[in-house]
Amino acid sequence: MNLLASLKKRISSVAEWLGVGKSNGEPLAPSVPRTDLEEPAPPATPNLPISTTVEPPVTATVDLPIAKGPIIDTEVDPATLAAMLKHVEACWQRLGETAPHWSVLTAPRFKPDRIAETADEFYGSGAADVDRLPRAADRCGIALPVQGTCFELGCGVGRLTLWLAKSFRLVIGADISLSHLALAKETVRAADCQNVELRHVDRLGALDELPAFECFYSAIVLQHNPPPVIRWLLMTILPKLSVGGLGFFQLLTVLPDYAFDAAAYVANPPTHGEMEMHALPHEVVLATIRDAGCELLEAREFDAVGIPGAMSMDFFVRKLAAPAKVPSVAWEPAKAN
Q1: Closest CA to 209 of 237, 230, 231
Q2: How many helices, marked H, and strands, marked E, lie in the chain?
Q3: Distance between CA atoms of 196 and 194, rounded to whole angstroms?
Q4: Rounded distance, CA 312 to CA 220, Å?
Q5: Full DSSP string of 27-69
Q6: Global pTM value
Q7: Residues paired with 316 in a beta bridge
Q8: Domain tally for the chain?
């Protein structure tokens, strides 16, 4: 048998065994998978437990330093607070004696040698700042208590006091600097404002002596006080609002690279007469508003300083009938477990 015949015979035998053709030389039918053949059994494997979780890859761990922001002290003891307040008073007393109008608006044209010719512009500029209060009320759909008393913190030389007096039945203006207050009295007298009272706030108990009021206003003032003083001022003033009373205040919540070490500040305070800029972190401001028994109606950015990277905010709040139920501990140190 030659090689070709032998090969045909082998192919025919295999085809017949697979059932896809006949061995008599007929053409093979198309291949059809066999269903009667058993699949070979898989190789035996050890009886291992089955896991439904995927183990993460093993990686090396490296201890990296945790980045922390600058420390800003916002709470101090009463003695330290009183020392800070005295320093602020000395600073602003000196500014009031040397450049009172410029210390309010730091433009060269408002320095002592030019204020006589720019006084009208200086005092007229207060209208736009005071107008931020009714605008905030309009946005929130709230009417201002115009028949009530408005307390102004940091009245200075009376630039804003004159305009507040046009909107409220009574305005109580307070300042820490007697030299500024002396000029404010002259301003109020010259404008014949009969509904303005001026007070000196030079100690911790001075604010406690204030009567209740329906509105609180302060602009470009809080930012010149150390953070613990800012918080103390807000925690003392806001609770004095009558129920439903409104508060409007501006301060800095961010200053580039700002930190505040209370102990170092008291031990080595800045030179008297230097204008300081301070910030109270946003979360501390919100917590203070709650702790003072108020609700936040609006927080709106308003650039009152012109410092790149700084965040100046207007806060508009309302006094609640009862203190907030959830106390805030945003600025308290973490307790050890």
Answers
A1: 237
A2: 10, 7
A3: 6
A4: 9
A5: PPPPP---SSSPPPPPPP---PPP--S-PPPP------PPP-P
A6: 0.76
A7: 248, 298
A8: 1
Q: For residue 196, is it within any domain?
A: yes
- Contact between 237 and 317 under an 8 Å Cβ cutoff? The reply is no
Largest CA distance in the chain: 138
Residue whose pair of structure tokens reads 């450049």 in the numeric block: 99
Q: 10 lies in a domain?
A: no
Task: Give the pLDDT mean for 50-79.
Answer: 61
Number of Cβ within 10 Å of residue 240's Cβ equals 18
Locate 269 and state its tokens: 């305070």
The pLDDT of residue 252 is above 60:
yes
Task: Identify the CATH number of the domain in which residue 210 sits.
Answer: 3.40.50.150
Average pLDDT over residues 99-105: 96
- DSSP β-bridge partners for residue 170: 149
Domain that holds residue 282: 78-93+127-319
Whether the per-residue pLDDT at 117 is higher than 90: the answer is: yes
Helix (H) or strand (E) holding 82: helix 78-98
Distance of CA 142 to the CA centre of its chain: 24
pLDDT at 321: 83
Mean pLDDT, residues 122-146: 97
CA–CA separation, 161 vs 219, rounded Å? 11
The least confident of 7-21, 174-188, 200-214, 226-240 is 7-21
Residue 226 lies in a domain: yes
Comparing 68-72, 140-144, 315-319, the range with the smallest average pLDDT is: 68-72
The neighbouring-strand residues paired with 294 are: 319
Average pLDDT, rounded, for the chain: 83
- Any domain includes 110: no
